[in-house]
Design brief:
Layout (H helix, E strand, L loop, with lengths): L7 H17 L10 H20 L4 H27 L5 H26 L1
Length: 117
């Protein structure tokens, strides 16, 4: 299997997670155990599932974990939109994560397709 640290999609996931931690530290205190935890868990789940899947012994298992990562992409996108609606994230700060989520999703779909061939 592929070493996860060599995958661009894993690196993008780690960078996105780092950014998410930075922008959520200023969320209201009452969201610390609510939306902040949800957003952070979803963001961490993306590169974590990529890494775990890459260490599995079969392509089928790797694909399953890439699908889990895709699910986390959708979950995080939804949570960012909610945070924007609640005015916890401003439009300027939302551009990068939403763009990266779109890119990560495209890369994951491509990788899944290649593993299916």
């Amino acid at each position: 299997m592929t070493e996860h640290k060599n995958l661009i999609v894993w690196k993008k996931g780690v960078d996105l997670t780092t950014y998410i931690y930075q922008i959520t530290k200023d969320f209201p205190h009452e969201e610390r155990y609510g939306l902040v935890d949800q957003i952070r868990r979803a963001s961490v789940s993306i590169p974590s599932n990529i890494a775990e899947g890459s260490k599995r012994s079969t392509k089928k298992d790797f694909k399953s974990f890439l699908h889990f990562a895709l699910g986390s992409v959708a979950e995080l996108e939804t949570q960012i939109i909610i945070a924007i609606n609640l005015k916890y994230i401003n439009e300027k700060d939302s551009v990068y994560p939403l763009k990266e989520l779109d890119e990560i999703s495209k890369i994951l779909h491509t990788l899944i397709k290649r593993l299916s061939d």
